[in-house]
Design goal:
This protein has about 120 residues and is an all-beta fold. The protein has strands at about 5, 10-15, 20-25, 35-40, 45-50, 60, 70-75, 80-85, 90-100, 110, 115-120.
């Protein structure tokens, strides 16, 4: 069982940066792939990025490559999402999630946090 709590969301101007954190409980955190997703009102939940249990492998959605960076600290049971050059259309509720393999598919993630709101003003 893994419980996830996101933090770090907020209001930022277009072009700005934010760092999201996702704190996990449970002794098995370092065995899970961790992913970030986002969801805007009226839209489906969208894959953003995932990182392997070791941190050596990552997979980014094309829309965020070069602007977002995922990392994890297994000693702290935390995964991070550094976001830069943010755009207004990236306003969404950002979720972290845990899976047993790197995947972009929502239903293959077993555990989810409650989300943290990111609002990008134009």
């Amino acid at each position: 069982q893994v419980q996830l709590v996101e933090s770090g969301g907020g209001l930022v101007q277009a072009g700005g940066s934010l760092r999201l954190s996702c704190a996990a409980s449970g002794r098995t955190f370092n065995t899970y792939v961790m992913g970030w997703f986002r969801q805007s009102p009226g839209k489906e939940r969208e894959f953003v990025v995932a990182i392997s249990w070791s941190g050596r492998n990552t997979y980014y959605a094309d829309s965020v490559k070069g602007r977002f960076t995922i990392s994890r600290d297994n000693a702290k049971n935390t995964v991070y999402l550094q976001m830069s050059s943010l755009k207004p259309e990236e306003t969404a509720l950002y979720y972290c999630a845990a899976a047993v393999k790197i995947t972009t598919i929502v239903n293959e993630y077993s555990y989810w946090g409650q989300g943290t709101q990111v609002t990008v003003s134009s």
